[in-house]
Write a structure and sequence with these properties.
With 506 residues, the chain is mainly β. Helix content is 1%, strand content 59%. This is DUF5723 domain-containing protein.
Length: 506
Amino acid sequence: MKKTLLKTFSCLIFCTNFRLCIPLLGCAQKLDAIGKSKPLAITGGISTNQIAYFASGITDRRAPYNFFVSGNLNFDLYGWSVPLGFTYSNQSKGAFQQPFNQYGLTPTYKWVTGHVGYSSMSFSNYTMNGHLFLGVGADLAPLGPFKVSLMYGRLQKEVVVDENLSPGIEPAYRRMGYGMKASYSKNKDNIDLIIFKAKDNLNSNPTMPMDGLVTPQDNLVLGLNATKTLFKKLLVNAEFAASALTRNQTASIDSLGSNKVPNLGFLLRTNSSTALYTAYKIGVGYSEKKYTIGLGYERIAPEYKTLGAYYFANDFENVTANLTTRLLKDKLSLAVNAGVQHDDLRKAKQSTMKRFVGALNATYQASKKMNLNASYSNFQSFVNIRSNFNQINSLTPYDNLDTLNYTQISQNVSLSSTYLLSQSKEKSQIISTNVSYMTSADKQGGNVQQSGGQFYNINASYSLGLVPKNISFTASINANKNSVGVIHTSTFGPTLGVNKAFSIKN
C-alpha cells in the first residue's frame, strides 16, 4: 500500500488579520474504475500560521503573539471520502473534528451518474437550485440529444421542539420532494422541461404549535428553459417558471372560487392559501470577431417562492446591457455593464427602490511580461418613501418637499499590475501592485449626509518560487486608510510568507 502525505508550512509576520481554512473535499465514485485504481488512498495536510501584533496610540486589542496549527487527513476508499481534521492554537484548546455528519455517494458508470445519500442538484434558477436533500438522484447523459435528471428525497427534516427544554428553536415539518429535468440539445440550441414538487408531511410533527407561525406548505413548480442561435451570430436565451404554492395545507377550501389555481389532484391540492407566481428572464446576445453586445430583462413576481431553493429574492424587475470588445491588436480588452433595477411591481409598498449599476473593466497586455488592469464601478440606490396621508390625499403639505427621497452612491476604482521578472525551470519571480479607492455617500433631500466615507488601499508584493524544491517565498507591503465621518483609521505593515510542499512515500 502506498501512502502519500502532503504537508504545507507557512509563516506570516506582521499581519493585520488572518483567515484559516480547511478545505471541504468531495469526489465521485467511478464504478467502472473498480479494480483499475488503488483501493485506498490517504492524503492530508498540515499548516501553521504565526502572527505578531503591534499597536501604537490605541489600546492593544489582541495578544502580541499567536500561533495556529491545523491539519486534515482524508481516507479515500474507492472514491468514498472520510475526512478528519484538527486545530490547535495558544488562544484556545485543541480540537478534533469529524467535519461531515452527512455522507453522499456519487457513483458513475459510463453515461449514468447517481446521487445516493446527501446530495444537491440544480435544474434551473427558479425551480430546484442547489437544495440539499437526503435520497436518490440520477443524471442520464447518453450519446445523442436527450438528457434526463431525476431526484427524490427529504428536503427538510422534522424538528420537534419542547419549549421547556429548547426555547427559541423553530419547529419544522418533514418535507419530501421529487423532480425531473428533460433536456434536448442540438448544436448550440437547447430546451429544458422541468417539474419540481415539494410537500410537507402533516403527520410528521404532532407537537407542532397551532399558532400559525409555521404552516405545512405544498409546492408545484413548472419550468422551461430555451436557447436558440439565429443567423449564426445571434443568441437568444429564455428562462421561465411558474410556481403554485399552498402556504397552509390546513386552510379552508376557497368556496368563493376566487382562487385561479386549479386542483391538480396528487400534484397539488389547492385551497384559499394557494397562489400562482411567475418568474422569467430573457437575454439576447450578438457576437462578432471583435465585440459582443447583449441585452437582458428579468422579472420576478412579488412573493414568488420555490421550496427547491433556500432563499429567493422577488418583487423586482431588471433591465441590463453589456458590451465586450478587443482593441489594439487584441492587447486591450474592454467590458462594460450597466443596468437598472426597481421593485414594488404592484405599486403597493410604502417605499420603492430604484437602483442603477454600472461597471467598466479594462485589461491591457503591455508585453509578454506585464499585464495592467483598471476597473470602475458605480452602484446607486434611490428610495422614495410615500406616507399614508400622501396616498389618501394628494393635497398634502409634503407635496413639494423632497426630504423623503434617499439616495446612496458607492464608487470603486481599482488599478493593478503584474510583472514577470523571470520564469524558468528552476525559478520564477513576480512583482504585483494594486491600488484601490472607494467612496460612499448618502444624500437625503439633495443634501450630502455625514454617513459616507472614503477607503484607500495599497499593496505591493514580490514572489519567488523555486520550482524543483516546491518552495515559494512571498514578501509584501500593505497600507490602507479609512475615513468615515469624523473617524479616521490607518494601517500599515509587511507580510512575509514561506510555503513548502513535499510528499512521503513508503
